[in-house]
Amino acid sequence: MESALHEDQKFNLLDLGRQGLTAFFAERGEKAFRASQVLQWIHRHGMHDFDGMTNLGKTLRDELRRVACVRAGANRYRRATSCGWNEKVVTPAR
């Protein structure tokens, strides 16, 4: 079994979006619906621990724990305004 990546080397699933997450699972030989399952756990149930994502197989949960994380960080939002682009950085409270 391969060792786990250092935390800052792991894929942050919050950064991937639906298409990126679908590609992430496809690269690992998983079906596309895994992206929807994980997004539901994260956004609907607030689950950030892969062990709690009980509709994923244990092998997949182990793999996710090894190579991925769910970590909130600074998010950048861009929107068009009448005078150009407005960018805002939102950092969650700690």
Question: In short, what is this structure?
Answer:
This protein has helices at residues 17-27, 33-44, 58-67, and strands at residues 11-12, 68-69, 75-81, 84-90.
Approximate strand percentage = 15-25%
**Order of helices and strands, N to C?**
EHHHEEE
Number of beta strands: 4
Instruction: Could you tell me the CATH topology label.
Output: DNA polymerase, domain 1
How many whole angstroms does the radius of gyration measure?
15 Å
Count of structural domains: 1
Biggest β-sheet: strands ordered side by side in the sheet:
1-2
Give the C-level CATH assignment: Mainly Alpha
Number of helices: 3
The mean pLDDT is: 81
Q: Percent of residues in helical segments? A: 25-40%
| Uncertain spans | 86-94
Shape: globular
CATH architecture verdict? Orthogonal Bundle
Summing up helix and strand content along with how strands pair, one would put the structural category as alpha+beta
Describe the structure.
This protein is an alpha+beta fold. It has a single domain, classed as DNA polymerase, domain 1, CATH 1.10.150.530. A two-stranded parallel sheet has the order 1-2. Strands 3-4 form a two-stranded antiparallel sheet. The longest helix has 12 residues. The C terminus is likely disordered.
